[in-house]
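Human:
Focus on the backbone:
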Amino acid sequence: MEINTPQILYHGTTENLVPSYREKLLNARYWRPGRDFGEGFYTTISAAQARKWAVKSAMEHYERVNPCVLEIELISLPADFVPLVFLSDSPAWAKFIWDHRVTTRKGEDPCERHPDLIIGPMADGDTGKIVKDCVKLNKDIHWFYDQIVRSSRGRRLDSLRLGNQVVFANERWETHVRLLGYHVQMKGRWISHGGASASQSL
């Protein structure tokens, strides 16, 4: 698989974690299970999507913190890596999400060999609740698939509307990415600290 570099990616987080990310971007110790594509460092090609992630992270934080978006450059590729790319939503994509959403113990994984890099659409809506409803109502994967591609108002979304995520699932990518800068939301404005977007609004 060939991926053209450099590629700019964004990661939504909170400002208080910036010093940690400056030391090490990919730290598997902090990767949580039970997410769409399993444990990993989640990024996106969309700055707007990363802003949403950042705001959500700040709202869920136990202390008052500022939303923050990291700007990251993918500068090279490992010699041998196992990628998985979903070009659009599909039953196979939904099954991959389901398998990883129901695996909630850290260190466990449903894959025989988990991919090093996963690229694909995001599930929409409250996926955690949809998983619980699927189990409770004894629904199948087709019902789950139909639910995770709909907005909160029930509208069917295509892959472009769902959003994009690029997940690094192995720390070996640490030497192939670098932090360009970060952008902090303060009083409703995004303030840039370095990065390609420093001279313009994120």
The longest strand covers residues 177-186. The chain has one domain: 7-194.
